[in-house]
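Co-fold these.
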Amino acid sequence: MSGYWLIALGAIPLVGALIVALLPEGRDEQAKQITLGTSLVALVVAIIAAAQFKPNGARFQGNLSWTWIRAFGVSFAVGVDGIALVMVLLIAVLVPVVVIASWNDETPGNRSPRAFFGWLLALEVMMVGVFVATDVFLFYVFFEAMLVPMYFLIGSFGGPRRQYAAMKFFLYSLLGGLIMLAAVITLYFASPTHSFAFMKLVGTVDPGYQKLLFFGFFIAFAIKAPLVPFHTWLPDAGAEAPIGGAVLLVGVLDKVGTFGFLRYCLPLFPDASRYFAPMVLILSVIGIIYGAIVAVGQRDMKRLVAYTSIAHFGFIGLGIFAFTTQGGSGAVLYMVNHGLSTGMLFIAVGILITRGKSRLIGDYGGVASVTPWLSGVFLFAGLSSLALPGLSTFVSEFLTLVGTFTVHKVYAILATIGIIFAALYVLWMYQRLFHGPKGEKVGRWRDLSGREAWAIGPLLVLIVFLGVYPKPILSVINPAVKATMQDVGKTDPAPTAGSAAK
Amino acid sequence: MNGVVNTAADMAPIHSPSIAYVALLPMLIMLGVACAGVLIEAFTSRATRMLIQAPLAMAGCVAALITVIVIRNKHVATAAGAVAIDGPTLFLEGSLAVLGLISILLVAERKVDAGGSALVSQAALAVGSSRDRAQATATRVQTEAYPLITFALSGMMLFPASNNLLLMFVSLEVLSLPLYLLTGLARRRRLLSQEAAVKYFLLGAFASAFFLYGLAMLYGYAGTVNLHGIFAASSGTNKGDSLLLLGFGLLVVGLLFKGSVAPFHTWTPDVYQGAPTPITGFMAACTKVAAFGAMLRVFYVAFGSTSWDWRPIMWGVAIISMLVGAIFGLTQTDVKRLLAYSSIAHAGFLLVGVMSLSPAGLSSTMFYLLTYAFATLGAFGVVTLVRTSTGEATHLSQWAGLAKRSPLLAGVFTIFLLSFAGVPLTAGFIGKFVIFRAGIDAGLGTLVVIALVASAIAAFFYLRIVVLMYFSDPPEDGPTVAVPGWPTQVALAVTAAATIFLGIFPQSILDVADKAAHFVS
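Predicted complex below.
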C-alpha cells in the first residue's frame, strides 16, 4: 500500500475545507455540496487504501517520512497498522454520514452553515492525521490541533449552553495535552535513540522513566477517552454539540484516547503499563457501572447517549488493559462498532429532536404511531448500543469480555452488570419516547425523509454486516493487536488463544 | 616640583580602546537615526517632519537589520571588552530591528483615530484644561515619537550586548527614558496615560536604583564591573559571597522589573493600559526582548558558576510570575490589562529558558522571545482597531460578537491568542516546546510541569476572548472596527503570517538561533 493514499486522505478534506472557507457569503448550498463531495472522495480513497493493506504483511504499511523540524528530530511520518487503518475507515464513513445528517440543521443565531461544514472538513483532516501519524511529535500536534475545529463546532453551532460546554471541553483536553507535552519532551531524552519515530522508540524507553511517562500520556488519553473520573466534560460537550459534532466527538475523537493507550502507552512503556494495569482495569469497571447507572437516570436524550458512551469506553479500557489478544481485538472492534452504533443513535436522536424541538425525554411519548420508520430505526440503534446478538456490537463486547475473563474473572463478571443496565437505559428510553400516550408536543410529524434514510442506511447495513461477518475487520486488527501485546510482553493464556476470534 | 613630576611619571598613559565600528554598526545606525530625527524635529517644517520622520525611522530599522545580516559572523568583544558582539547580540539586534519596524508601522497609522494618530500632540497640557479639551478634537499630529522610539531601540540593542555592568546601566536608561515619555502620549484617556507615565517613571527609577546598587555591591566583591571579571572572581574562590549574592539580588531586581516578571510586575497592567496602544505593543514586545536578552547575558556570562546559589530563588520567582500572570489574568475585564498579565505569565516561562544555563536554553529563550513578540505586537495591533466614538473599546464586554462584525479581524486575533495559549501549528507552541525541552534537559522538570499547568490556566482567559468574539451575540451599541490604512494592515499581516509560519516551519529560525547560541568570551 502506498503511503500517498494516506497523504491524500488528509489532503483532500484540507483542500475542501479551504475551498469552503473561501466561498463568498451566502453560498451555503455550494458549501454543503463541496463538503459532501470531498468527504465522499475521501471515503473512496480510504477504501482503496484499505484494499491495498495486506493483513499479514508488515505491521506498519504505507510508511512515508520526511524530516520536518530537524532541530527536534521530528519527522512528518505517516503509516498505518491494522488498528489505525480501521479507525481511518471509520472516520471516512462517518464524515459523509454526518454531512448528510446535518444538511438542514438550523444554526443558532442564523450563523452561516458554511462555517459548520468548513470546520467539519478541517476536523476530518486532524482526525486522519492523529491516526496515521507514526511520529510521536506529529501525533501530538494533531492531537492538540484537533481541539480547535471541535471547539468551534460546539461553541458556534451547539445548544443553549454551548459556550460553557465548548470551554470545558477545550480546557480539559488542553490540560491533559499539556501534561502529555511534558511527557513527549521527556520521552525524547528517556530513549537513547533520541527520536520521535514510533518504531524506533518501541522497546528503548528507559524503565526508570516509564512510570512517569506513562502517567503523562495516560492522563491525556484518559481525559480524551474519557475514563471515570476524567469524564465530566463529555456529557456537557456531547449534549451541547450539534448532532454532527456529537457523532464525531463520541464516535471518533474520544477513540483517540483508547487508540493512544494501544498505540503509545502499551508499546512504549510496557513495564509501566503492566504496573498500572490494575488501576486502569478498576477505573474501567467503575466507568462501565457508573456510566450505565447515570445513563438510566438521564432526562436529556443527548446526555443519556453521552453517558452510555462512558460505559462503553469502560469496556474498551477493560479489553485493552486485560493484555490478551482477544481482549485487545475486541476493544479495537468495539471502537469501530461503537462509532457506528452510537453515531446512528445520535443521528436518530437528532432526527427526533428536529421534529420535537426538545432534548427532554419527558416531552415525547407515543411517537411510534406518528413516525413508525423513525421508531424502528431508533430501536435498531438502541439495540445495537446494548449489543444485541446478531449485531456488530455483540461481537466486540463478547470478545472483550471473554478476553478479560481468561485473566481477570472478577472484573469481567462485574462488567456484565453493565450489560443489564444497558438494556434498561436503552429500552426504557425507547419506551418513554415512542410508546404510551402521545406527548403534548407530538403532532403530525413527518417520518424519515429520503436524506435522513441516506444518513442512517449505511450505518445500519454496516452494523448488520459486521455483526454477521466480522472477519474482514478482525483479520486486519488481529496482527496489530498481537504485535502490541508482544511489545507489552504478555502472551495469551494457552487454552483460549485466538480460538474465539476466528 | 618634585611631587608633580612624580605624579606625571606614575600616571599611566590613557589609551583609547580600539573599537570595532563595523560590529557596532546596527546600534550606531539606530543612534544616528535617532539623532537625525531630533535634528529634523528641531529644524524643519511640520509638513516635512510629517513626511520624513516615520520613513526615516523605518529605514533605520531596515538598515540595521541588513547590517546585522551582513555582519552575522563577526563575533568580537570590543570597546575594551565592554560591548560583546556575538551570536545572541546579533540575533536579538535583528529581532529588535524587525519588531521595531512593525511597532513603527503601528505608530505611523493615520487612518484609525479621528485625530490622525494614536499619540497626542501636546502631552504636557494639564488634563481637563480648556487647551487640553481643544486638542482632543483637533487633528494636530506631532512626530516626536519617532526619535524617541529609535532612541529606545538603540538602547535596547545595546542592553543585551553590554558585557560591562556600567554600560548595561547606561543602556538601561537610554531605553527607559524614552519609554516613560511615550507612555504619557495617549491621545485618548489622557489622565490614565499620564498616571501610567508617572507610575512607570517612579517605579522604573526605583528599579534602576536597585540595579545600580547591585552593581556597586558586585564591584565591591569582584573589583570589576566586567561580567567575565565577576565570573572569574566568583568561581573557585573561597571568598565570602554575601556581597556577591546581595549584588546579584539587587541587580536582578532591576532586570526582572524591565522584563515585567512577578513579583516586580505591578507597573505592567497599569502602564500597558494607560500607554497608547501602539506604544504598549512596542514596550511589550521590544522591552521584553531587550530585558531578557540582558538577563541571558548576566546569568550565563557572570553567574554561570554560582547557579547553585541563585537557582532556588529564581525557581520561586519563575513560579510566582507564571501563577500571578495566569491567575490574575482570569479576573481581568480589559483587553490591554489581560495582555499585560499574559506578558507576566510568559515572562515566567521565559525564565525557564534563562535558568537552563545551556546552549539549548539560550537559543530557546531567544526563539521564544521572537514568537511571543510577534503575537504580542499583532494582538495590540488588533486592539487599536476596535473602537467606539471615544477611542478604543478595550472592555472585554465590548468585544462580544466581534467575529460577526469583522470575521477577518477576529480570525487574526484568534491566531495570536492560540499562539499565546501554545496550541500546535502556531509559533507559540514551538516556542513552548523548545523552552520546556531545554528546561527538562537542564533538570528543571518540576518547574516545567508547573509551567504547563500555568499555561493551561492561562489558556482559559485567552479562550474566553475567543468565546466572546465567536459565540456571543454582539451588543446593540457595540464598537466598530476601524478600517486601517496600509501600515497597520502590513503589521498585522506580517505578525499573523510569522505566527503561523514559525508554527509550521520553524526550522530556519531555530537554526539561526542555535547557531547564535554562544556568548563571545
